[in-house]
Amino acid sequence: MEDIEVTVQAVRDVGGGTVALELTAPEGFDALPGQFVLLRAVPDDEELARHYTLSSPTVDETFEITVGIDPDGDLSPWLADREPGDAVRIDGPFGRISYEGDGDVVAVAGGPGVGPAVAIAEAARANDRDAVVVYQDDDHAHLERLEALERDGATVEVLDGDRNEALRGAVEEHLEAGRVYVFGFSDFVTFVADAIEDAGGDPDEALIENFG
After folding, report:
1. Tens of pLDDT along 12-21?
2. What is the distance between the alpha carbons of residues 49 and 81, in angstroms, rounded to a whole number?
3. Fewer CB atoms inside 10 A, N or C side of the chain?
4. Per-residue pLDDT tens for 153-199?
5. 83 exposed, middle or buried (CB, 10 Å; 0-12, 13-18, 19+)?
6. Which fold has domain 4-93?
7. pTM higher than 0.70, yes or no?
8. DSSP helix, strand, coil percent of the chain (3-state; round to 5)
9. For residues 69 and 17, is the Cβ–Cβ distance under 8 A?
10. 105-210: which CATH topology?
């Protein structure tokens, strides 16, 4: 799909200087957890476009993206101020990384990568598959959903941003628990890829989304 208008249904504060935008799913929008959209908006009469990975396990009537708010950013504060009924435009979905409900998962997330990690874990549990989430950040988001996942039987490890050795240990501990998905910025995903290799795994077999 290209340049499709979608309506904001809700904007929720999910902690950690982060909001979740719930958007209407246009007819024929067939996206899987792990894929992303290109969102277009026109704050201050200038069109801006950014990629956002889906943070909802389904896209039946609505879908969700998770947006970390940069107070000095040109788009994220504007998105955080949207209200129900406002409109943005999207292209997509895009991306080869997705979860189709056919196996156990280990989702390793840094920063805004928690959105797709939670979505994939929720989709796995909805299909009676095992799920592990390892999440590292300085200021955590989506804690309510992570707690709900844990109550539903998922394994969840929430780590502070400076606990790299704990992150390395969690990757090693859970490496064989399912298909590994990794979401985050470049330094984070590089660290996790190295941790996978150090633990005897093959980082090329992991599905890694580098946010840049």
Report:
1. 999 999 999 9
2. 17
3. C
4. 999 999 999 999 999 999 999 999 999 999 999 999 999 999 999 99
5. exposed
6. Elongation Factor Tu (Ef-tu); domain 3 (2.40.30)
7. yes
8. 30, 35, 35
9. yes
10. Rossmann fold (3.40.50)
